[in-house]
Amino acid sequence: MSSNNNVLVKMNNAGYRHNDKWLVQGVSLSVEKGKIVTLIGPNGSGKSTTAKIALGILKKIDGSVEKYTNKIGYVPQKISVDWTLPLRVYDFMILTENLDEKTIDEALSLTGVIHLKDKSLGNLSGGEFQRVLLARAISKKPELLVLDEPVQGVDFTGEIALYELIKKISDELNCGILLISHDLHTVMSATDHVVCLNGHVCCSGTPIDVAKNTEYKALFGEQASQILTRYEHKHDHVHTIEGEIKKN
Amino acid sequence: MFDDFFIRALVAGLGVAFVTGPLGCFVVWRRLSYFGDTLAHSALLGVTIAYSLEFNIALSVFIISSLIALILVQLQNRTNLPGDALLGLLAHSSLAVGLVVIGFLTFIRFDVMGLLFGDILAVTVNDLYIIWIGGALILLTLRLIWKGLFASTVNYELAEAEGLNPDRAKAIFTILMAAIIAISIKMVGLLLITGMLIIPAAMARNISDSPQKMIIYSIIGGLLSVIIGLFSSLEFNTPSGPSIIAAALFLFVISLFKIKQTIKLKN
User: Cα dihedral sign for B227, B229, B233, B235?
Assistant: First the structure.
């Protein structure tokens, strides 16, 4: 179907309707190996729905989805584990795939929660739980990672560290990432492609293109588009042509 | 050796407990206790059909229970009635229809009490084969669908997204529920089968910190309930099903004290 064999998942004019109400429609996007695609948009704009369409969780959809990989790691937006099910972090790590001890420890160390391995999932704080969710998703070394607001509830420094980790994973595993966030500031800098949603694709392109887009400004306000400009001036170093990093 | 009705009942009960242990955990985790009840109530219809057509009881119960589960899925798709109302509708109407049919079958003498509450005297050597071979098949199947079923019990979307086919696992699990009811109906009786599923599992939850432990404790709890229940049934001449369930309740109450202790220790 696709001439580009780096494509992991491709949505063609996809949409989903629930109770006669369109949650999202007309979304076309593709996630390629080693690339990060970020979905942004206000609450209820269909970000999570779009991710669920891409993952094949929602089946009665409009348009089509082509998936070229089965090695998928997913961090859902919301997950609650009932008290009746006793589940330790370790049990959760091997939920969808059996992993050896070493792989589990590595992933938990990367997200900084190795000390919680034998803790019950129900006793974790929101931020800790988020880190475990991310560790589980990356531990199976997926080709496609779908992260639905992966750092919600994580403290500020942790947030930046986790976004750096996500970027690193994308480079090291050469996996494609579909990232959902409303945290424009931190996210957009590491992203290759931004899709701005508001029930439909309101604009898309490189982070800078999107930030300049008038619809985006209308949606998020003038200030939001200045975040990037400000961000661009915040670099304290430059990359030389030789690949060296020079401090300003 | 199996001449003795008591030994037969014991072997049958232990076989049932091995299967209700793990299945019961899933019933508790997936909040299916009322669903289990509904399937069990419909078993009466299965038994009456088996009697009137001179058909194997376990097989007949299995078919009718599976059929009721199918009807439930259809009803869920066709009406907007809440799930518990549909379950109640099916549970009581199938029980009622079963009892009405019994009324018509005047040429057969029914031990209704035995059907409702279990009858150890009724267990034959043939039943033992059905329980142990059927039980082994149920556990084997559960082992095969474990990954998808367990993952989707924790989170359906995660299981679906990562390619574990939770819908298939759920459908197979429903069949396993019908199967366990079919093989255990003679032992515990149709009104108490759900108790055999959920009470040992609930007891196990109180003393476990991982899913594997909960399943193992649930099995042990079931085995102990059968042993204690049957011996007291023999001793006090009480019906087997209620005695087993009462023993399970006894174990559950003991497990509550264990919880209190651990909570105190934590503070």
Answer: positive
Provide CB contacts within 8 A for A87, sequence distance 6+: A81, A120, A121, A122, B154, B210, B211
B89 within some domain:
yes
Among A65, A87, A148, A180, pick the best mutation site for testing chain B contact (most B Cβ within 10 A).
A87
A158 in a structural domain: no
Residues in chain A whose beta carbon is closer than 8 A to a beta carbon of chain B? 52, 55-57, 70, 72-74, 76, 79, 81-82, 84-88, 90-92, 95-97, 120, 140, 146
Whether residue A134 is contained in a domain is answered as no
| pLDDT per residue as tens, chain B (267 positions) | 445 888 999 999 999 999 999 999 999 999 999 999 999 999 989 988 888 888 888 899 999 999 999 998 888 888 888 888 999 999 999 999 988 988 888 777 778 888 888 887 778 899 999 999 999 999 999 999 999 999 999 999 999 999 999 999 999 999 999 999 999 888 888 888 999 999 999 999 999 999 999 999 999 999 999 999 999 988 888 888 899 999 999 999 999 986 655 555 554
* Phi, psi at A88, each rounded to 5°: -90, 165
Domain of residue B181 covers 5-190
The CA distance from A62 to A26, in Å, is 8
Rg of chain B (C-alpha set) = 19
Contact A168, A156 (CB under 8 A): no
For residue B153, what are its two tokens? 């019990």
Tell me which residue range forms the domain holding A13.
Answer: 1-71+174-248
Distance in Å, alpha carbon of B179 to nearest chain A alpha carbon:
24
Task: Give the count of domains, chain A.
Answer: 1
CATH number for the domain spanning A62: value is 3.40.50.300
In a domain? residue A181: yes
**pTM for the structure as a whole:** 0.86
